[in-house]
Amino acid sequence: MSKIQITSEKISNESNISISYKVQGIGYPTLLMHGLGANNRQILSTFSATNARIWSPDLPGHGHSDNFQNAYCFAKFKEIMIAFLDSLQIEKVILGGISMGSGIAINMAESLSDRVAGLIICRPAWLDKQRPDNLQIISDIGNWLQNKTLEQAKFELSRNLQFQDLLKTNPNCAASIEASINDRFSNQTHSVLSQMIEGRAFEDLENLNHLNMPTFITANENDPIHPVSIAKKISMNIRNSQFHILPSRYLEPKKHQRELTNKLNNFLGSNNF
User: Fold this and answer.
1) Ranges of the chain with pLDDT below 50
2) DSSP assignment, residue 63?
3) Hey, what domains does the chain have and what are their CATH numbers?
4) What's this model's pTM, rounded to 2 decimal places?
């Protein structure tokens, strides 16, 4: 595994992959990773009132970090993030993230169980199967961006039946999906969207019962990209887990954020983090 050297708020490994990151808060060392198509600002805003010392990287292909030269997958993200922890000399850590980031955290925990003090799993979208149905529209967006102009990709999205329905019934969710097709990827690869959908967060759901660290898991209703059923299945297979269904972040965003912060800080306090 490549060794990564720290330089201020950027790290680079021997493969010349540079990772940009931010640090905020006071408390137990915690690595939180953002979702597909987002960047560390998603983590910094969502967990701004969390009682923890949070390291939040831009994952490769996102934000100000470099792209991979080869295919994007959970295993490669895991390798880079383990090297990230090693470079920071953090031996014991809480791992977690949102959506894709939570999948990377679980993947890392399976390899680093002796170093992982706890898990924070928010709105997971992957299990142990490739090409999950809930992410098909994101995969389509990735393919359109790779093979069409930006305007053509936007046109294809406008014709998508699921997107048309969400515009009427859940406009905030539709806006979140549409953000994947905006210019946040103008200087980054589009392949990360479709390639990550081809992967699985971990090899076998039942193997998660070997994880015994305290685990905080959340889901919310009215979120077709992050179904409650996925979070529930993960919770059922991690023995020492707390599972919370929060108010919809699309329909009740302030209430969602308030309950997330309160429940997460209670989890951290009750486990002496």
Assistant:
1) 1-8, 14, 186-187
2) T
3) 4-130+201-270 (3.40.50.1820), 133-193 (no CATH)
4) 0.92
